[in-house]
């Protein structure tokens, strides 16, 4: 299972999973866009490179997802998948570099929702040996 949606009174809450932190962050991006459309239908016409850094892993997750929302809001960019993600600790900060493949939004993709913002509410990043889980609440 890559992600699952959880009960929440007003917003959208999900957990994303992976064998690595990178895989769980990638699956979180897909889960966030699944709130909006079917990512599998999005064509891989454009590749964008994303680089974000933060003081901690939760902040990194927040900035990663916010950057994707920024691309949606400014360039109408919707994702199909994430590739070549690398998360490193650089001094006291964490650095994430990734490529996202997708397309400019078209009516054929059938947007069926909206995400106003990523929140820190109930957010967590958990790593165990061979397993990483993140939890996110989206303001919709």
Share of β-strand residues: over 45%
Gross CATH architecture: 3-Layer(bab) Sandwich
Compute the number of helices. 2
Largest sheet: 4 strands, antiparallel
Task: Give the termini distance in whole angstroms.
Answer: 24 Å
At the third CATH level, what is the topology name? Archease, Possible Chaperone, Chain: A, domain 1
CATH H-level superfamily title: Archease domain
The first-level CATH class is given as: Alpha Beta
Radius of gyration: 14 Å
Shape: globular
Quaternary state of this entry equals single chain
* Topology order in helix (H) and strand (E) letters: EEHEHEEEE
- Poorly predicted regions are none
Mean pLDDT: 96
Description:
- About 25% of the residues lie in helices and about 50% in strands.
- The chain has one domain (about 5-140): Archease, Possible Chaperone, Chain: A, domain 1.
- The mean pLDDT is about 95.
- The radius of gyration is 14 Å and the shape is globular.
- Helix 1 runs parallel beside helix 2 (about 55-75).
- By secondary structure, it is α+β, with helices and mostly antiparallel strands.
- Strand 6 and strand 7 form a beta hairpin.
- The two termini are about 25 Å apart.
- A 4-stranded antiparallel β-sheet has the order 1-2-7-6.
